[in-house]
Amino acid sequence: MLTTENFKEMLAQGRTLKHAPADEDALGPLKQLTGVWTNVPHLPGHGWNMIALPFIKEGSSLNYRLLLNQYNEKNAFGLVDKGVPNRGVDLNEPENTDQFVATLDYDQSITQIAAMDFPESGEAGPPDLPIHHEPGLFLHMTNLATTGFDIARLGSIPHGNSVLALGKARTIDGAPTIPQESGLPLGFKKLDNPYLAPYKHFHENLFKGVFDPTIPNDLLTKANEGVAIVKTTELTFDSTFESGGISSIPFIKKQANATKMNATFWIQELADKDSNGDPILRLQYTQTVILNFFGIDWPHVSVNTLQKVV
Asked: How many helices (H) and strands (E) in the chain?
């Protein structure tokens, strides 16, 4: 939340839209996001994605394929829309109860380095293929966050989805503890089920020699080995909180319905300094979208480790 002084200053200025400065206090826990984050040149190939897709292959008893991608990403957080008013009243007092929101827009673009699927479809795609573009907003509710959720994320996905996820922020001394979560379909715990043959295949034959889709967050933990992380700002978002949710076009709802999303972002200040003498900033995230088809919930997981461009 903003200090009283900063809040009064924002209200006095009114609503403003401008390029987001790195020290924009109205953004609260989001302010370090301002700027551009990339994998190259410092952390190439640290983006990993896994997704199960409906698929029929002649001669196979399976009705899906598991697709894995290695990727590079550019995520640019550009404009801040400050002092956005949400009008309200309390009829019991009576008085105006206006909420003021600061928003930070982002533009995410992802380019494939390598891809492989099982069973093999011939549709995994070549290197340098653009595989994702997502514009959206991160929000900081500067006041009247009565439910305890003071940040939010809105995203628009070209497949035909839009997502609203609410969240909370906290500061951690040192490095974060990355949760070790299963990438298996919900309700499945062991790989001895023949239906999980694609997961077993990549568990025994790691994609690019490192990525195991049964434990996708493991690569985030490994990326932190030997890195001196002084402080971490953790942002958690979940579409199942309060009024959040995902809306999709009819085809998606019928074939592979995106039912919920959760994501955690870790903004990390390193002991190492950049060319300006400031702490090098890294951004790690893990995101899981649950796709439902054939009556099964399938985790679609993306993880990455990026560095902020000076």
From this structure: 4, 15
